[in-house]
Write a structure and sequence with these properties.
Pseudouridine synthase, eight-stranded mixed beta sheet, four-stranded antiparallel beta sheet, globular, about 30% helix, alpha+beta
Amino acid sequence: MTNSSAQPSSPRSERLCGRIKVEPEDFQVEELPAYLPSGEGEHLYLWVEKRDVSAEYLTGLLSRTLGISRDSIGMAGQKDRRAVTRQWVSIPGEAEARLSSLDDLAAQGLVKVLSSARHRNKLRTGHLVGNRFSILVRTDDPQALEIATRIAERVRAEGVPNRYGDQRFGIGDSTLAWGRDLLTGARSSREIEPHRRRSFLRFALSSVQSDLFNAVIQIRQNQGSLRRVLSGDVLQVIASGGCFITDDLTVDQTRVDSREIVPTGPIFGVKMKSPTGEAYELEQQVLTASGFEVKHFEAFSQLMPGARRALVVYPNDVDVIADPQGVRVTFSLPPGAYATTVLSEFVDASPEEANDEGSSSIAE
């Protein structure tokens, strides 16, 4: 069974025919931090640029080169591998004296430290307000800019389905398969190497939650209720993230239309806020079709407690720019939203081109 992100992002047919991520420079990401280092403290923050390097590999490089443990390294979010990305990374302050050992990595074009400053706390997952993307779509279509401009206008007006990208599920859905087997008891966490057990468990289990969420998005998109309030919907205040169950469809629909609030979908878990009415029935339909029940999530409640996630995301600063190789698409996303889901509104790209690890932040 393939994951639910394999469905087309939008029912509209107008898209560019082109290629992405041909070169790392085609896909540029800059982290938007929640705060800047204060200049004092026991941790050292590094503003780094990495090229064609995964987050996992970056952690290993820093660990080996600086002689520090992997666990002592902090990142706000994982970034795409096939890309040029800039982000903050925290390391123990005592490693500052060994920073010159990273010069060889810069000479190889892998990782470059652009600046550094002290701070009092380790950088943690989620310590960011989002990411800014600049993505080249390589195409020889003479109407590419005109087409991309129309798509950008639609994305600004309507947002995009906030689905999880293919990279959430692993190559050939291998991570998703592991997650399903763990939940059903077909496989045991003891089969995972101890040093990567907790992180892999989190990824595998969350991939199941992500797949179920994508299935809900697909159903609501097909029935035209992605942006329409259903009875019993759990709605989220976009500015604060607070959630509540609708009690007035007319009033709340007006608020959705004005982008004050947005309908949410399930990140299933024992602590998830459950909808009622029509929304509840729809989500239970998806859960039942998957072969799971809420009880399957109880054994892993610490790793997957459950949450709500907006069904639609509204990218900021959406723009398209002519490029000698095609069109460059730029936009910003909040944590948890995937650049590939926005990009799928603009271009039909093969799974190989889209299957990378990063998002604005892959943690929920």
